[in-house]
C-alpha cells in the first residue's frame, strides 16, 4: 500500500500478529512450566502420603484413591508401583499389573518414562526390605489442563486483539483523516478565487502542518491579489507617459505644437518610463538573483549630504523644509544599496510630508542607523507591517516598489527596517545596519 493510512494499517496488523504469536508461545511455555512444577510437587506430596500408609500397615493398604492430585479446580488420582529388588511388581494401582516385571526405561534426569505408549511423570522412593515405590501420573492430564488454560488465554488474547485492532483502526482513521482533508483542500486550491478553507488543525504535529498550509495558502492568495493590484497600478502608471508620448507625437505630426516642445515632453516622459521599468526590473532581480554586493569604504555623512542635495528640487517645488543631522562615520558597506535605501525613504517622505522632512544618520554599536521622519498623516498601526510588502501602495504611492526594494536590501544585509510613528507626528522609517563579524 502506497498511502500513509495503508502503511500504518499494515504495520499495525503485522505488529499485532507478531505480538499475539509471541504472547501465545511464551504464555504456553509458562503454563507448561508451572504445571510441570506443580505436578512434581504434588507427586512428592503423594509419595510422602503413600509411604506413611505403607509404614502404618502394609503394601496392600495403599490404593489409587489415596493419591489425590489437584490442578486448579479439578481433581485427579496418581497411580503407583511397588517393586522388589528384581523389579517385580508386588503392588500396583492396577491389580492386573501385579506379578509382572516392570519393563520401562526411566530417566532419572527429567523423571519421565513411557508406559503402554503414554508418557508418564514419576517420582520414586526406596522402602525397607529392598522395595521401591514409584508414584506417577500421565502427561495427558497435564496437557488437558494446559489446553484448557491456553484456550481461555487465547480467548482473552483474541478479545484484546479485537479491541486493540478497533482502537488502532479508529486511531489510524482519526490520524490520517485530516491529511486526507488537507490533500483534498490543496487539490482544490486556486489563488484566483477564494476556495473552501482548509480544516482547522489541532495542537498535534499534523494539526500544526494543516495550520501551516492554511497560513501558506493565505499568503499565496494575498500575494496573488497583490500581483493583480500591482499589474493594475503599473499598467496605469506606464499608460500615463505612453499616452503623453503618443499625444505629443501626434501633435508634432499635425503641427499643433512645435517640434522642440514635443521632443522635450517625449524625452521627459521616456526617461520617466525607463526609470519605472528599471525599478521594477531591479526588484525582480533582487528577489530571484543572489548577486554579490561589493563592500566599499565610504563616508556615510557625505552620502547623506548628497541625498539631501538631490532632494533640493523637490523641496523647492513643494515648499517643504528638509533638515539633515548626520554624524561623521566611515564604514565598509554596499554603498549603492545603502544610498538607494536613503533615497527611497526620502522620496516616500516627500510625497506625504506637510511641511517638514528630517534625515538622520546616527552611529550604533557595530553599525549605523538611517532615519527619515515627516510630519504627514503617518501610517496606520494595522498597516505598518504591510507597508514594506511588494505592490503595497499608500494614498500617495505610485507602484509600491520603492519600500519593497528597501525591504529586500535589508533582508539581504541582515539589517532591521521598521515603520513607526515619528516625533513629528507623521511616519518614521528606520534602517539599522550592523557589520557582520
What does this structure look like?
- This protein is an alpha+beta fold.
- It has three domains: 4-148, Beta-Lactamase, CATH 3.30.450.20; 205-288, Orthogonal Bundle (Helix Hairpins), CATH 1.10.287.130; 296-434, 2-Layer Sandwich (Heat Shock Protein 90).
- Helices cover 53% and strands 19% of the residues.
- The longest helix has 53 residues, at 4-56.
- The radius of gyration is 49 Å and the shape is rod-shaped.
- The two termini are 52 Å apart.
Helix-strand category: alpha+beta
CATH architecture title of the largest domain: 2-Layer Sandwich
- In the sheet with the most strands, the strands line up as 4-3-7-6-5
Helix content: 40-55%
Order of helices and strands: HEEEEEEEHHHEHHEEHEEHEE
Q: Residue-averaged pLDDT, rounded? A: 79
Count of beta strands: 14
Under CATH, the homologous superfamily of the largest domain reads: PAS domain
Question: Which outline best applies?
Answer: rod-shaped
Please give the largest β-sheet.
5 strands, antiparallel
Roughly what fraction of the amino acids lie in strands? 15-25%
Distance between the termini: 52 Å
Q: Write the CATH fold name of the largest domain.
A: Beta-Lactamase
Based on CA atoms alone, the radius of gyration comes out at: 49 Å
Tally of helical segments: 8
How would you summarize this macromolecular structure in one to three sentences?
The protein is of the alpha+beta class and 437 residues long. The chain has helices spanning 4-56, 139-188, 205-253, 259-288, 300-310, 312-318, 335-352, 402-413, and strands at residues 68-71, 74-77, 79-83, 89-92, 112-115, 118-126, 132-138, 296-299, 321-326, 330-333, 356-364, 367-374, 416-421, 427-434. It folds into three domains: 4-148, PAS domain (Beta-Lactamase, 2-Layer Sandwich); 205-288, Orthogonal Bundle (Helix Hairpins), CATH 1.10.287.130; 296-434, Histidine kinase-like ATPase, C-terminal domain (Heat Shock Protein 90), CATH 3.30.565.
Amino acid at each position: 500500500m502506497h498511502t500513509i493510512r495503508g502503511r500504518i494499517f499494515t504495520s499495525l496488523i503485522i505488529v499485532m500478529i507478531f505480538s499475539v504469536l509471541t504472547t501465545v508461545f511464551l504464555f504456553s511455555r509458562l503454563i507448561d512450566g508451572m504445571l510441570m512444577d506443580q505436578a512434581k510437587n504434588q507427586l512428592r506430596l503423594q509419595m510422602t502420603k503413600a509411604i506413611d500408609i505403607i509404614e502404618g500397615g502394609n503394601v496392600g493398604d495403599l490404593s489409587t484413591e489415596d493419591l489425590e492430585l489437584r490442578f486448579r479446580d479439578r481433581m485427579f488420582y496418581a497411580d503407583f508401583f511397588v517393586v522388589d529388588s528384581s523389579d517385580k511388581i508386588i503392588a500396583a494401582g492396577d491389580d492386573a499389573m501385579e506379578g509382572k516385571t516392570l519393563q520401562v526405561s526411566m530417566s532419572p534426569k527429567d523423571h519421565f518414562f513411557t508406559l503402554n505408549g503414554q508418557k508418564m511423570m514419576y517420582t520414586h522412593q526406596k522402602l525397607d526390605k529392598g522395595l521401591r515405590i514409584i508414584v506417577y501420573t500421565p502427561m495427558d492430564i497435564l496437557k488437558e489442563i494446559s489446553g484448557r488454560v491456553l484456550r481461555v488465554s487465547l480467548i482473552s488474547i483474541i478479545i484484546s486483539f479485537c479491541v486493540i485492532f478497533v482502537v488502532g483502526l479508529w486511531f489510524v482513521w482519526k490520524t490520517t483523516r485530516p491529511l486526507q482533508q488537507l490533500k483534498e483542500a490543496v487539490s482544490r486550491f486556486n489563488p484566483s478565487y477564494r476556495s473552501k478553507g482548509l480544516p482547522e488543525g489541532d495542537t498535534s504535529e499534523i494539526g500544526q502542518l494543516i495550520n501551516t498550509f492554511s497560513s501558506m495558502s493565505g499568503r499565496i492568495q494575498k500575494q496573488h491579489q497583490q500581483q493583480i493590484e500591482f499589474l493594475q497600478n503599473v499598467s496605469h502608471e506606464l499608460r500615463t507617459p505612453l499616452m503623453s508620448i503618443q499625444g505629443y507625437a501626434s501633435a508634432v505630426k499635425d503641427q499643433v505644437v512645435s517640434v522642440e516642445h514635443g521632443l522635450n515632453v517625449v524625452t521627459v516622459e521616456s526617461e520617466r518610463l525607463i526609470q519605472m521599468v528599471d525599478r521594477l526590473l531591479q526588484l525582480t532581480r533582487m528577489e530571484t538573483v543572489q548577486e554579490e554586493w561589493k563592500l566599499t569604504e565610504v563616508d556615510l555623512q557625505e552620502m547623506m549630504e548628497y541625498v539631501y542635495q538631490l532632494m533640493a528640487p523637490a523641496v523647492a517645488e513643494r515648499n517643504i523644509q528638509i533638515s539633515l543631522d548626520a554624524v561623521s562615520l566611515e564604514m565598509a558597506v554596499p554603498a549603492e544599496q545603502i544610498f538607494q535605501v536613503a533615497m527611497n525613504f526620502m522620496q516616500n517622505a516627500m510625497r506625504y510630508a506637510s511641511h517638514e522632512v528630517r534625515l538622520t544618520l546616527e552611529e550604533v554599536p557595530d553599525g549605523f542607523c538611517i532615519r527619515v521622519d515627516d510630519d504627514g498623516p503617518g501610517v496606520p498601526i494595522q498597516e505598518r507591517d504591510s507597508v514594506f510588502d511588494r505592490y503595497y501602495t499608500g494614498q500617495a504611492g505610485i507602484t509600491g516598489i520603492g519600500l519593497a526594494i528597501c525591504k529586500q536590501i535589508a533582508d539581504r544585509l541582515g539589517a532591521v527596517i521598521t515603520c513607526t510613528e515619528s516625533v513629528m507626528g507623521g511616519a518614521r522609517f528606520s534602517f539599522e545596519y550592523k557589520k557582520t563579524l
